[in-house]
Amino acid sequence: RIGAAPLAAGANAATAAMSTDAVVLRCLSVACGEDLQLFERVVVVSGSERRVCFVCIGKHGLLFVGRDMESLLEKGGKLLYLCIARVVVDTSSPTLFLLEVAAADDAAEAAGWEHGDRLLVESQHRELLLERLAICWQTEQMFRRYRVQKLPLARAAIGAVIVDSRGVGNRAQTAEVMPFRGYESGFSHAGYAVFLREGFKSVAGLKTGSFVHASGWEVTYYAKRFAI
């Protein structure tokens, strides 16, 4: 489950869920010692170590909180945005991504981080989480380094083999629903993937939630606004 401080207004189911866990967000904020924007329960893999925890979007970095929601993880509870060199999105699954950690400019930036230079994360709301991470990373670059720069993002099939807590490589078991005959996959918006008839394309290549067909058909994503 994913959550955020501000009230969501009907963008999608994931965003809507963000407004229902304000109490959990406050508990995590106490554990982190700072205000948080967003959180999600994830699985992180570093080397041979696999842990279930909460990842939180903080003011200057990602914070990893234990399942008891009482404190940050030992030896790597905070990863500053300035220490993130690149994000690699797994093309073989809808949930995995890899954080590549760069050498810090000074000791303060790397304080407390002992999970190496790569961290594999499994997130059920990957698109939304990475979208917010990219905004915070770019903001931190402007605030700290006076640079206008986007978060480096790459795509690769990194989920073929996952190392479990015993250090044994296992084939990732992910069930994939295939489109009906005459339909295509690869259409997504706001964290959702859909199947559409062959021939549909996004409008002008923009992520607006609208897809058009050469025959004149148009499909548009719509979510009704609501308040809790």
- Flag low-confidence runs: 1-20, 163-173
The description of the largest β-sheet is: 9 strands, mixed
Query: Structural class of the secondary elements?
Result: alpha+beta
Report the radius of gyration as a whole number of Å: 19 Å
Rounded mean pLDDT score: 75
Give the fraction of residues assigned to helices.
10-25%
Q: How many beta-strand elements?
A: 16
The proportion of residues in beta strands is 25-35%
Give the overall shape, derived from the CA principal axes: elongated
Map the helices and strands.
Elements: E1 2-4, H1 13-18, H2 22-32, E2 38-46, E3 49-57, E4 61-65, E5 78-80, E6 84-90, E7 96-101, E8 118-122, H3 126-145, E9 153-156, E10 161-163, E11 169-171, E12 183-189, E13 192-197, E14 201-202, E15 210-212, E16 218-220
Parallel strand pairs: 6-9
Antiparallel strand pairs: 1-2, 2-3, 2-8, 3-4, 4-5, 6-7, 7-8, 10-11, 12-13, 14-15, 15-16
Describe, in plain words, how this protein is organized in 3D.
The strands form four sheets. Strands 1, 2, 3, 4, 5, 6, 7, 8 and 9 form a nine-stranded mixed sheet that branches. A three-stranded antiparallel sheet has the order 14-15-16, with no helix packed on it. A two-stranded antiparallel ribbon has the order 10-11. It is an alpha+beta fold. The N terminus is likely disordered. Helix content is 16%, strand content 34%. The relative contact order is 0.14. It has three helices and 16 strands.
